[in-house]
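Entry for the shared binder. Reason: the reviewer on the internal report wants the predicted structure included alongside the sequence.
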Amino acid sequence: EASLTLSNSRPVRFAQGDSHGARVCAPSIGATTGGLPLHKVCFVPSVAEASVFLFPVTIGTFYLKSKQSRMVQVRDVVVGDGQLVLIAGPCVMENLDLCRQIAGHLQAVCARLGIPYIFKASFDKANRTSIDSFRGDGLDEGLAVLRNIREEFALPVTTDIHLPDQALLVSETVDLLQIPAFLCRQTDLLMAAAETGKPVNVKKGQFLAPWDTIHIVNKLKASGASGVLLCERGNSFGYNTLVVDMAGLSVMRQYAPVVFDATHSAQRPGGAGAQTGGNRESIPALARAAVAVGIDALFMEAHPDPEHALSDSATQFPLDGMENLLKTLLKIHEAAHAG
């Protein structure tokens, strides 16, 4: 047995023993072990504490998350404190009036239900299937829309960035930076986002195992992010199909608060020829399952007229259906946390 002292954390005891099925992780924060080498250590994390064991697998360094360190502050909203947070808005900023309509409606719904709310919208859909698809009005106009929503409704706002040189400029307007799934391993982009000092929400790539997201967390923490969220949005299953590994939510939640993207998880990438298809009817079931397993925030794209939306028309959720869905999800969330 030896003492394990971690950067910015309390000392932890560890001893030779069984790993209880824990996955081996290699975070980037250094640690000392009172004279014993730290090259054979793994851990069993929970919400508030971690048990550490010697284990015959060579890994790198290790860090511990406490319950408090899991919480991520996004303006006046806390993600990871036990409440179910909503991150929602249109897929793309079609125009200011649409964003105002959606933000106002969802803010009122969340106020009635007691749900903390973060507005989201994209200024550029850089990964559209077709060159002819609408991408958005660009960075400058998009940031102007987000500033308007943030000031008029006093809401925290978020949007996605695609290039490292967008990070600092966007961070001056938004409260939470988002990294698209296809770019979740791009170190330069992650570092640039983290170096702004803003919290970062990373969409897990459709190609990535849940336990591999620890490396994303490490990159962001090592680069100065004030908080990290991990977002599940489905895994590739053959061609044009996504499935959701619900058990993976619990794995990722060991590393950071977890967001579940119910709308993108219902997509069929490229499944509609020159555009992405999807199954909107499956969104409530996916959301119910994720909340039952345990998540910290729900991500949804909503639109007053989904069929005529300029992006992701197959999977944006009807704006007027959001309140009933959220009522159901709150009941599940409360039941899952009872006792």
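Summary line for the report: The chain is about 30% helix and 20% strand.
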